[in-house]
Amino acid sequence: MASVSGSMKGFYRQKKNTTKSSKKAPANAKSDAPQLVSHADDDYSASEAMLRQFDMNMAYGPCAGMTRAARWERAQKLGLNPPQAIQTLLNSGKVQSESLWDGRI
Question: What residues does 98 pair with on adjacent strands?
Answer without folding.
Answer: 67
